[in-house]
Design a protein that fits this description.
This protein is of the alpha+beta class. Helices cover 14% and strands 33% of the residues. The structure holds manganese (II) ion.
């Protein structure tokens, strides 16, 4: 038996209302999944199949944390999102079976270095340095679907320093959760422990050092993240 070198805890999210931890595998994120947000980013929401990018598992940040303002950006943006946690993997999952693969849900932030993302778009380069950086994936404790069901409608919103900035409804997703899982599983074999950040409603905008972000998804929970001054 080989000994595994201990570099400290593996990425995991708490399970709400208990002491269990959900080990986080890959983090997939859906781009432009709400029509109004696609429009505010200059795209036609009716034309595109879903597309995906990733964040490292260790980009997760627990609810309530104060985190350092990230390096290398002058334009950090908030994107509030419903997070889907998979408990069962698979490839080529049918839409009708997709929710059987969901373990639970959380409220997350897809933090974005918009300046670096914009530059990458312009140059035809990957988005990673705009999306996949330290502390870029805050998320609440996960709620099991066995307890809350599968939220398909309800408010999703974000306040910055108490002022409402993003507001939408889960029912406005262009590709809903089962469709997203089915489509993504046609591209990669999904694994238990994978998270899917399911896209953000309109109203994305800048975050400054010292800002307090408060996200909410009806029936799922509330996320608070503060940026250090
Ligand atoms: Mn996003």
């Amino acid at each position: 038996m080989k000994h595994v070198i201990d570099f400290g805890p593996i990425p995991a999210l708490p399970v709400a209302g208990g002491s269990d931890l959900f080990p986080v595998g890959r983090i997939y994120c859906v781009g432009r999944n709400y029509a109004e947000h696609a429009r505010e980013m200059g795209h036609d929401p009716d034309r595109e199949p879903p597309f995906f990018f990733m964040k490292p598992a260790n980009a997760i940040v627990p609810n309530g944390a104060t985190i350092p303002f990230p390096q290398a950006t002058q334009d950090l943006h908030h994107e509030i999102e419903l997070v889907v946690a998979l408990g069962k993997g698979g490839a080529n999952i049918a839409v009708e079976k997709a929710l059987d693969h969901v373990w639970g849900y959380g409220v997350g932030l897809d933090m974005t270095r918009r300046d670096l993302q914009g530059e990458a778009k312009k140059m035809g380069r990957p988005w990673e340095m705009g999306k996949s950086f330290d502390n870029s994936a805050p998320c609440t404790a996960l709620l099991p679907a066995s307890r809350i069901g599968h939220p398909a409608k309800g408010a999703i919103c974000l306040k910055v320093n108490g002022a409402i900035k993003q507001k939408g409804d889960l029912s406005e997703m262009i590709w809903n959760v089962p469709e997203t899982i089915a489509y993504l599983s046609g591209l990669v074999t999904l694994q238990p422990g994978d998270l899917i950040y399911s896209g953000t409603p309109a109203g994305v905008g800048p975050v400054q050092p010292g800002d307090k972000l408060e996200g909410h998804v009806d029936g799922v929970g509330d996320l608070t993240i503060t940026y250090a001054k």
